[in-house]
Amino acid sequence: MATPAQWITGARPRTLPNAVAPVVAGTGAAAFLDSAVWWKAVLALSVSLALIIGVNYANDYSDGIRGTDDDRTGPLRLVGSGLASPRAVLTAAVTALAVAGICGIALALVSNPWLIAVGAVCIAAAWFYTGGSKPYGYAGFGEVAVFVFFGLVAVCGTEYTQALRVDVVGLALAVAIGSLSAAVLVANNLRDIPTDTAAGKVTLAVRLGDTGTRRLYLNLMVVPAVATAGLAAATPWALAGFAVAPLALRAARPVYRGATGAALIPVLAGTGATMLGWAIIVAVALWAPWG
């Protein structure tokens, strides 16, 4: 039986910046419009955190029962390691997704009811990433989904629920956060190319190959720099976002130096830290009275 610490590890806490950063960025965009609402931001954060935890447990369950996780170099997987039964991990996934749904419905009802449909699509995307008979994560569309749901939808959705509109600032933030969030998955799949290939999991990294995947990661890491320069048109204080450049360079170093296997694991945490740091700095720049 898995211990509480192992359940926490199975939830993949290193991916939590992917959930927090979009809400921070979206709230910053709403603040720029003088429309930030703290309790709606808290609800949005609850949705995002529960959703990503649900995705991670669902991924653990689906990959585990398929045997994809039988030979891994990455973080602990509960089903693949035999520490928890598939039923227990499935229950954890469904519970987390249910919490995301309940919080999402509450947020939609106080913002705009049509957002319930958006939430339903998000939950379906979370499950079918590796679940179902034809998971899209096994067909090379995982990075696209992360860009859309943890970038465009999460950032713009957070801004919309507070300001009831989305502006060009919110879109720029969404593209930047989506790129960094996708970069986390790209780094993860770069590490897993050998084992995914053997298991028949055709991720985008498997399709692009080692060199192509490294190029994709580095290109995605450049997008926030371009967005930072563009956001200076809204407020010059947004240029403070370049302060995360050392974090980004440190995260990317193993990738451009050709690291493989376990040596790529720190890239995930480093990319997540870059994303969260950038979101916080730029959100403050957009919110601050002098902005």
From TrEMBL:
Localization per Swiss-Prot or TrEMBL: Cell membrane; Membrane
InterPro entries reported in the protein's UniProt record: MenA, UbiA_prenyltransferase, UbiA_sf, UBIAD1
Top enzyme category: transferase
One Pfam family per UniProt: UbiA
Catalytic activities: an all-trans-polyprenyl diphosphate + 1,4-dihydroxy-2-naphthoate + H(+) = a 2-demethylmenaquinol + CO2 + diphosphate
Sample GO molecular function, one term: 1,4-dihydroxy-2-naphthoate polyprenyltransferase activity
TM helices/strands, residue ranges: 37-58, 88-107, 114-130, 136-156, 168-187, 216-249, 261-288
Family designation: Belongs to the MenA family. Type 1 subfamily.
Name recorded for this polypeptide: 1,4-dihydroxy-2-naphthoate octaprenyltransferase
Source organism of the structure: Mycolicibacterium insubricum
